[in-house]
Amino acid sequence: PPPPPPPPTPEGPFSFDRAFGRGWEIFRENYGFVLGLTVVYALILFGIAVVTGMIDAAIFGVPTRQQQMQGQMQVQVVGPIVNLLVGYPLGTGFLFTGVRLVRGETTTLNDLFLAFQRWGIVVLIHFLIALMILVPVVVLGFAAGVAGALAGGVAGTGLGALILLGLLLVVFVGVLCVGTRLQYAAPLAIDPRTGSPGSIQSISLSWRLTGPYFFPLLGLIFVLVIMLGVTILACLLPAVFFGGPLALCVWAAAYEQITYTGSSAQANTAPAGPRRCTRCGYSLRGLSKSTVFCPECGQPLR
Predict the structure, then answer these.
(1) Contact 19, 98 (CB under 8 A)
(2) What is the pLDDT of residues 174-184, one digit of tens each?
(3) Highest mean pLDDT among 60-69, 228-237, 273-282
(4) pLDDT (tens digit per residue) in 220-256
(5) CA–CA–CA angle 49, 41, 50 (5° rounding)
(6) Termini Cα distance of the chain
(7) What are phi and psi of 293, to 5 degrees?
(8) Is 300 left (phi over 0), alpha (psi -120 to 50) or beta?
(9) 152: CB partners within 8 A, 6+ apart
(10) How many CB atoms within 10 Å of residue 24?
(11) Does residue 9 sit in helix, strand or coil?
């Protein structure tokens, strides 16, 4: 018979209130460090935005005031590329530093750069997720425009607008689902407990682990986005001193609870049981002793 589910603890399994409660504890206990980490991370992102904006302006020019009034925006090419190569790995390290705090591990500001140890894998993960989101958006957006134009020409603008709205709603729901289910793919790739999976394995593992918690996790993200938005609108400083650090702690607590196996004390012992995963048959040979999940399907190994 399958083993009984692990008992609820502050480390898991995941729930909305448990993640917020554990995140608040980490926020209070480590406020100085989390604040410093958030400030350093924000300053680096700000510097990247300024420098890449200047480069894009020098290459492509700056729209005139009249062009801006007509809706023409500054062409951005260098910025998105640098964000993919530098900004996204920094964001992954930012989150995983919070995860280490939740686990009670010793952390430093240098942990912000942890993802660069597996830079290629992390960048590829973000690139693949972007493709998974952008390609359907472009295709469905084009289909929505064509369908709306045809329907509008045949049955009036009301039907065309209704079809366009319906397809755009499908795009929105799809992006929301993919973004929520795959948000932990990059952190899983640099987590020693997962056995350092590859890009596809990390994406698959994130999809499997977040599946049972999709709606509460979506609710948590919604609350965190509102909290960040309100604190940013309040002259930005509350976002730096409160909203950002708290969001990091809650987000990290949710990650630790979603990847919870019921025995964090066993993290340094060798995986028990057969040399292959009991769910998918994936070979466990050569994996780190700290591995607690099958890198292929996410099945707990303990």
Answers:
(1) no
(2) 888 888 999 99
(3) 228-237
(4) 999 999 988 888 887 777 888 899 999 999 999 999 9
(5) 15
(6) 15
(7) -130, 145
(8) beta
(9) 159, 160, 161
(10) 14
(11) strand
